[in-house]
Design brief:
Strand order of the largest sheet: 2-1-3-4-5-6
Strand content: 15-25%
Pfam family, one: Ser_hydrolase
InterPro entries: AB_hydrolase_fold (IPR029058), RBBP9/YdeN (IPR010662)
Structural class: alpha/beta
CATH class: Alpha Beta
Number of helices: 6
Oligomer: single chain
GO molecular function, one term: hydrolase activity
CATH architecture: 3-Layer(aba) Sandwich
Helix content: 25-40%
Protein name: Alpha/beta hydrolase
CATH topology: Rossmann fold
Length: 192
């Protein structure tokens, strides 16, 4: 069962590095909500921060309703960089659901994501919620907490949820979708 609250928004699904496969919660949620739009990057394997930010900006500018960003991993970093670089477009975003943000500054970050470091430190200009895990190999819980404080995001930390992806057992993830709907119900609806 889906919540009618999602109909208020132009929902943009913002995958991370290598995209989200068909069993990933982002893909499963999008399958259940055909009106949702997936951000399509030109190169999923060797991401360019400038290109990924530009793609997100174009999609937000084309939206006809307040935008809800549903981001995962490097998609969270893309969202933060975009908001810092495009405050005029960011005004069109009502909220961002930022799941398992990738810490592109960690010592063992893959070279492919190095162009997304350093991460912006400024508060995001829209409501945001970070969903992190206490054992995410790509972002320590303490780092997720620091990002939440810097970005002005609410923070939820899941226990032993890994990178909150298919490998960690997050396929349909109905609890996540319900939590998103509940959180949205607490927010005022922004105007595009």
């Amino acid at each position: 069962m889906t919540s009618p609250i999602f109909e208020r928004y132009h929902v943009l699904v913002v995958p991370g590095w290598q995209n989200s496969g068909p069993e990933h919660w982002q893909s499963r949620w999008q399958d259940a909500h055909p009106a949702w739009q997936r951000l399509q990057q030109a190169d999923w394997l060797t991401p360019s921060r400038a290109d990924w930010v530009a793609t997100l900006d174009a999609a937000v500018r084309a939206a006809d309703r307040p935008v809800l960003l549903v981001a995962h991993s490097l998609g969270c970093a893309t969202t933060a960089h975009w908001a810092a670089q495009h405050p005029d477009s960011a005004a069109r975003v009502a909220a961002a659901w930022l799941v398992a943000p990738a810490d592109t500054e960690r010592a063992d970050a893959p070279p492919a994501v190095a162009g997304f470091a350093p991460l912006p430190r400024a508060p995001l200009p829209f409501a945001s919620q970070i969903i992190a895990s206490d054992n995410d190999p790509y972002c320590a819980a303490a780092r997720a907490d620091a990002l939440a404080r810097q970005w002005g995001s609410a923070l939820t930390v899941l226990h032993a949820a890994g990178h909150i992806n298919t490998d960690a057992g997050f396929g349909p993830w109905p609890e996540g979708l319900a939590a998103l709907a509940d959180w949205l119900a607490t927010l005022p609806l922004a105007q595009p």
